[in-house]
Amino acid sequence: MKVGVLALQGAVREHIRMLEATGVEAVSVKRREQLNDLDGLVIPGGESTTISKMMGKYDLMEPIREMGQRGVPLFGTCAGLILLAERIEGVENAHLGLLDITVRRNAFGRQRESFEAPLMIDGVAEDFEAVFIRAPQITEAGARAEILCTVDDRIVVVRQGHLLGASFHPELTDDSRLHAHFVEMVKEAKSAHTV
Ligand code: GLN
């Protein structure tokens, strides 16, 4: 099993380390051809408009969207969550437009640009220490998206079948449980396709 980490911006090595901690092979991905043999892909945080432009420039937007439509598991964190969303407040066009949610960028306000919070994530952890950095908030989860976690009544983790999104940076701690959850999704998708 091989899981890629989109390596255009963000904490790529940290995501790779987390995935490896769960026992899968993890590779950094920059080129379109590399997408072909992946069983799953992580889209890290950074700055969503910059990552989106680079995805366009390197011809990655359409093939990643197709992967998502085909049922290959995708995990977006922070800016990666914004890239997955179908709707972004104040913006006409979404990026990948796969996840049935509305997001608000930089939603946690100036005074809280960066903070840590212990989270209860359904089916994942009861005490997940999460790092939020200029984080987006999920302001609406549509019927297809299942809410896995809220903080102060704001939605911060959702799952929609083979798609997982978190507003924080799960790669910046030593806790690999959310990555392990994603790897389980990758295993499920793979066995569903090979049976
Ligand atoms: N604020 C960034 C954006 O809107 C996301 C921040 C992050 O990924 N840490 O794209």
UniProtKB/TrEMBL annotation:
Q: Which reaction does it catalyse?
A: L-glutamine + H2O = L-glutamate + NH4(+); aldehydo-D-ribose 5-phosphate + D-glyceraldehyde 3-phosphate + L-glutamine = pyridoxal 5'-phosphate + L-glutamate + phosphate + 3 H2O + H(+)
The active site annotation covers C78 (nucleophile), H169 (charge relay system), E171 (charge relay system)
Record carries keyword Lyase: yes
InterPro entries named among the record's database cross-references: Class_I_gatase-like, PdxT/SNO, PdxT/SNO_CS
One Pfam entry for this protein is: SNO
Q: What residue ranges are annotated as transmembrane?
A: none
- Keyword set includes S-adenosyl-L-methionine: no
Provide this UniProt record's keywords sorted from A to Z.
Answer: Glutamine amidotransferase, Hydrolase, Lyase, Pyridoxal phosphate
List its EC numbers: 4.3.3.6, 3.5.1.2
User: Which PROSITE patterns would you find in this protein's record?
Assistant: GATASE_COBBQ, GATASE_TYPE_1, PDXT_SNO_1, PDXT_SNO_2
Q: Which GO terms describe its molecular function?
A: glutaminase activity; pyridoxal 5'-phosphate synthase (glutamine hydrolysing) activity
Binding positions for L-glutamine per the UniProt entry:
G46, E47, S48, R105, I133, R134
UniProt superkingdom: Bacteria
Functional pathway: Cofactor biosynthesis; pyridoxal 5'-phosphate biosynthesis
Q: Which NCBIfam families match?
A: PLP_synth_Pdx2
Q: What role is this protein assigned?
A: Catalyzes the hydrolysis of glutamine to glutamate and ammonia as part of the biosynthesis of pyridoxal 5'-phosphate. The resulting ammonia molecule is channeled to the active site of PdxS.
Q: Could you say which protein family the record assigns here? A: Belongs to the glutaminase PdxT/SNO family.
On assembly, the entry states: In the presence of PdxS, forms a dodecamer of heterodimers. Only shows activity in the heterodimer.
Report the protein name in the record: Pyridoxal 5'-phosphate synthase subunit PdxT
